[in-house]
């Protein structure tokens, strides 16, 4: 009887050990695996590069579409690692998508479906531009060519924009809290309070901006966002309002890192955002690190 009890105790101990090992393994595996990680381990060189690791194709979208005035979609062609998050980008007042063209292949080659859009008129205000950014994202998900829809993860979407397009990015995030990230670039908006925004937001301002000065636009926008929000404010040293219209390594590297961290949930990129970066090109950086 004692022998049987001993055998049973031993068996239970072994089973318990196996179960414990299984539970421990379950705890470790999700922490090590992110289904949205795309591309090789990042480095300073990789996020500053003109091109990332993915080959890119593009699709022109007619101005006859509904809700905005067409544009260009840039997308990775290799889906061996899975699908990609999407980002719509709006130009500023009186500008067209050409002013934002440089973001297309640069971001797409890092692993995003990128849609640079034209607005219905060049004089559209931030609220209208916000609506058009959301219409562009809806087009990506529902009506873009099959080649695009096959590589897009419609649940992981973001917005960017310059000037009034940046103000439109704030409008879009207020209207659609399911967005994963927002990057307003030297943004302009008459509304200075954005306490309702719950989307991780990186605001990029320019020290010498005489059109949307950081004192009256970018800084109040940032300060009005909830302190509980994942947010950051990057001010470009010596830059003008139009800095986002020209290929810019600082804008690119931190935009890529922000999109990777919050659209892809890829914590490999946290190292570039936290602690606050302090390179020469940055006049000031604020954040709610860590994230």
N- to C-terminal distance: 58 Å
- Percent strand equals 15-25%
- Which strand order does the major sheet show? 1-2-4-3-5-6-7-8-9
Mean pLDDT metric: 92
Please tell me what the overall shape is: globular
Largest sheet: 9 strands, mixed
Question: What is the CATH architecture descriptor?
Answer: 3-Layer(aba) Sandwich
The tally of domains stands at: 1
Radius of gyration of CA atoms, rounded to a whole number = 22 Å
Low-confidence stretches: 1-31
- Give the CATH superfamily: Alpha/Beta hydrolase fold, catalytic domain
Q: Portion of residues in helices?
A: 25-40%
Can you write the helix and strand succession as a string? HHEEEHEHHEHEEHEHE
Helical segment count = 8
Essential attributes:
carboxylic ester hydrolase activity, FrsA_esterase, 9 strands, 8 helices, AB_hydrolase_fold, 291 residues, signal, Rossmann fold, single chain, nine-stranded mixed sheet, alpha/beta, hydrolase
